[in-house]
Structures are given as C-alpha cells and as structure tokens.
Amino acid sequence: MSESKILSLCATCSKENAKYRCGNCKKSWYCSQECQKADWKSHKPKCNYDAEKLISLVIVKGEEVWEQKVPRVETDPTNGWIPCKITEMIGVPVMVKRWASYTQIPSSEKGIFLMVDPITGLAGPEWQQGCGIIAFARKDRTDMTVQLFWDLYSYIFHLMDYYTDDGFNYNQFRQRKLNYESFRVYQEEEHRLQEEFRQLNPAL
C-alpha cells in the first residue's frame, strides 16, 4: 500500500479519509491494512484484471515526453510497431509506433535518437521530417517508464561522439558499446550523478 493525501472512502468499511490504496491497481482505497486484507478475496480478481490489461508506454510529441497508461493490447508487436535497433543491441528491446502522424508537428531529437541506425548513426528520413506523435513500448510488454526512456536517450546521445570520429570502426564499436554491460555501467553512473545533483540542489 502507498500513502496519499487524496480523501477517499475505505472499500471495506466505507470510512472517510482512507489514507492507503492498493499498490497494484491503484484504485481501491483502505483505512488500514486490516481492511485491505478483509477485502482481498473480493478485490483480487478485479485487481489482477486491471494489472493485466493496462501498461505504461512513453509518448513523445515534439519536445514533450510523458508516460501514458493504455490497454495492454495496444502494445501487440504485430500492430504497427517496429523495433528500435540500437536498444535491441544493448539488451533493452524497445518498439516504436507513430501514434499520430501529424506532419505539421516537427521532428524531435528526443524521438528520433532512439531510431538511429547502429551502423550509420543516422535515423531514416521518415523520422526526421515531421514524425508527429510517437510512442515507445518495451518489446516484452512490461511497463516502459520515462526514466528508462531518458536512460536510453542519454546513452545513444553519448554514442553519437563515436560516429563522428575519423577512425570509427563499427565492429570494434559494436563489441565495446552496443551491449547491455556497457549500457548498464553508463546508466548507473548517470543515476549516481543525478542523485548528487539533487542533493546539491534540493530546491530544483
């Protein structure tokens, strides 16, 4: 259970100002652990159903990036999703889909960086000219979070320096950088630096 300041009725005893809600489905509220346990038998089928049917994916619209819950069926890999090549190579398979192909919306660096070709370091022209609203989902159909999106984006941004090197050797680059271990080392270091920044700048 997780605490919240939202005032709700307990699903078991109907008392007002229930402070806790189910940590799984986030929908049923309780005034105590005892009430949650008492309601579990009737709540369990619905709770499991909700958890199975909803999934988080990341939406990118221009410079905006946010998480959105959608029916799990929306992430069916056969329904217009295509793989992000670099994320597959570094061990975090992600798919992308044009959520709304509005050509008046300009292309966004934040979206197309995950679409770069691992050999050339460039995204195809279809992602560079008004790619519209796009969505990213994990290929294993678990939750795709904004934090993971930024981790992948940041790592691929970091890789771009290698492509501009005059002595670029793709085979060496693939072995050294396009793997899960290299991504995890970078990810852990980034998280450490972010935490240090938050501690030094608590007001931000």
Automatic annotation (TrEMBL):
Question: SUPFAM superfamilies in the record, alphabetically?
Answer: HIT/MYND zinc finger-like
Q: What is this protein called?
A: MYND-type domain-containing protein
Species this chain originates from: Brachionus calyciflorus
- Example GO molecular function: zinc ion binding
Give the InterPro entries listed for this entry. Znf_MYND (IPR002893)
- Alphabetical UniProt keywords: Metal-binding, Zinc, Zinc-finger
Leader sequence residues = none
Domain spans labelled MYND-type: 10-47
What are the transmembrane regions? none
Pfam families, A to Z: zf-MYND
